[in-house]
Every structure is written in structure tokens, then in C-alpha cells.
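Sorry, can you check?
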Amino acid sequence: MTNVFSLYSTLKDRISQHEARVTTVGLGYVGLPLALTVSEAGFCVTGLDLNTDRVAAINAGERVVSYFPENRVGDAVASGRFSASSDGAVLAEADVILICVPTPLSGEREPDLKYVTAAARTIAEWLRPGQLVILESTVWPGATATVLKPILEARGLRAGEDFFLAFSPEREDPGNEKYTTQTIPKIVGADDQRSRDLVDLFYSQFVTRTVPVSSLATAEAVKLAENSFRTVNIALVNEMKVAMEAMGVDVWEVVKAAATKPFGYMPFYPGPGIGGDCIPVSPVYLSWRARDVGSSMPIVDLARLNNDQAPDLLAGRVAIELGKTGKAIKDARILILGIAYKKDVEDTRESPALAILNRLEAMGAACDFHDPYFPVMPVTRDHPDLAGRCSVALTEGTVADYDAVLVATDHTNVDYAVVAQSASLILDTRNVFDAKGLSADRGKIVKV
């Protein structure tokens, strides 16, 4: 019989002394920053990823992610404390295993845990007594205990006795220079006290604050609550934008003024829709789980519908504004500024810009894009048919050739002055021209 206290004490000591070996499963926008942060705290870390090209690039010290400091990956590799691998055998040597894989939506817009279960099966092959397994991927409340745990226990080891199991939701905000992996408080939860103590101890070695909660399900629910809150408020401000425009009121000015209230209000800003792997996904997981247990979340569902319809509404608005200039949407040439889901990152997951592009072309328009982070359109999960298109140069001549320019993503490194000077019609979903104080014929700039 395994001595759980001995396993616990040994792992606790190894974590406290930074002798524990760590493996992150997944080296994407969550797993790679986490792996680097852990290694920078003095732990030996191996990142496991099936993408052999990415593994090779990381081991060569390439930057990989645009908003990282230039030498961050290279310095981590050179330190000898960090490396990447595509061989699952590295899991056998790990004391702490962090699962950071995608949890997207299925084609039916329901939770899809296929990457979590695949990772769990791989880990189960190498699982040994005394390891701590932590899931960071977004899941519905109860998933760690009912989906992940049975797979890990299939070979006879038991969570809380032979190995330790915890959940800590990722809170990454790609490109955010103020809040990083190290400075964002970390939620940690487990269903047994030893696992909870170990996960709390582990993260406390490299984050400024840990926030222990009573169970796996509570920790899972925290992430869904955070992003459902954002979903509802984004839907609300986009709805207000439409209503206030009909009233002759600028919603951007309203939000700016309302934000001066020091209590009871938090500013959210209009936009073309929601993107990334968190805000569009978390509310679906929460609502799905609510229905699964016989409850419902109609406000969240309505907000999701509102946000899902935003690209269609914007495409329709483009047609209306073009019509005012005497140009039909069919055969119109439209330039979309920005295809990333948010500014200053090379990430197109669930990007509303791509959805808008598809809608406009379905209406007969011819669309091009400009994005400094994407010289060539990558193969995207949601719109693979768009892959291979090239970003057009942003010059006075090229901009003038389009019937309209739609600002979908407000990247910093874009020459908006050229657009303001040369475009025939500008449809601004991000208020970027007012924010930059650009002078132009205001009649040709429409906030949408």
C-alpha cells in the first residue's frame, strides 16, 4: 500500500527547494508563458507539445510569440532549465504536470474536451506515484473529477492517495504588459487537502498571490464566472451602441464619462464581436453545464447570441453605409484592418474580423486585409478556407483603391494617418481615429 504521507512530504520538500521537475503539456499562449515563468523561478521545466516545428523553434531560442521580450525564450533555453520536447516519455521524470491544452467548442457549439482527454491518456501511460497533475484548461464544473480523473486512475493509481490532482484556471491576457503570469493572482483548488496544499505551495513559488478554494469544481467555476461576466457586459455595451446611435448619442463618450464614477461601474467598450479562446468559450461551458444539472442561464445565453450575431450585423452595416455613397455591396472592394481577435497579438482564434470577412464576401464583396502580425493568412481553426491570402501594403495608393476600410482590430503598429487621408469611407469599430486625434473629413469616418 502506498504511503500517501511519504509521497506528499517528498513532493512538498522538492517543490519548496525548487528541485521538483515540471512538465507543461501544451506550449501555446498559456503553456509557454507558464513554462517560462516556472523556469525563471528556478525550476527545471520541459514543455511537451505535438507540434514538432514549434518544439524545434523553441529549442533554437526563437521568440515564437511576438509580445515576449526578444531574448526571453533564448535566455530560458540557455539557462539549461528549460527545453521543449514532443516525446511523452518526459512525463515519467516530472514531479509536477501542468495541462495547458485548448478546450474549444465543437461544431455544434458545445464543449469539446478532446484535447484534455488526449493529454490525460498520454499522462496516464507515464503516471507514477507521487506526481502532482494540475489542469489549467477551461472546463465545465465537475470535469476534472468526472472526465480527467477516471482516465488518470485507469491503470490503478488513485488521486489523493497515489498521485495528487488539482485545478488552477489559466488567466493569461496575451499582450498585456501590466498583468503577467507572475502578477495575476492564481486560483487553486482540489478535492483533498494534500492536493490543495501542494498546488498552493507550487504556484506560490512564482506568482505574487494564490487564492485557494474548497474544491475542483469551485476553481473550475471561477474561470467561467469571470468570462461570462465579460460576455454579458460586452453584449450590453454593443447593444447600447446601436440604441444610442439611434438617439444621436456617442456611446464612446458615454462610457468614458461613466468610467469616472469610482464605484458601481466598470467600463466596457463596443467592438466587432468577441474572440480568443476564453470569452466566446467559457459562457458556453457554463450554460451547457447548467442545463446538464437541470438549471438554465438565460441572460448568459442571450448575451452569447448577441455577440455571435455581431459580425452579421456589422456586415449589414457596411452594406448600408456603402449604399449611402451610391455603392452596392456586391462587387464592392473592402479592406479590413486587423484579423487578430485583439490588438497587438498574432492570434486569430474565434476572431470576429474573419467572420465579418466571410459575411461580406458571401454578400458579394471582394475583401482584402492588412495586419502587421500576419503577412500571410494562417490556417485558422474556424476559417481554414481563408488561408494563404496575403496582407496588402498600407499606402495612399492601395487604400484609395478600396470602396471602404473597416477597422476590425486596432493594432498599434498601423499607419492610421494614411487611412484617414486616403480612404473613401472608414468604418471604425474600435474608435481608433478619435482616440488618436486624427484629422480627416469626419463625414467619411463612421463609428460602427
Q: What stands out?
A: The mean pLDDT is 95.
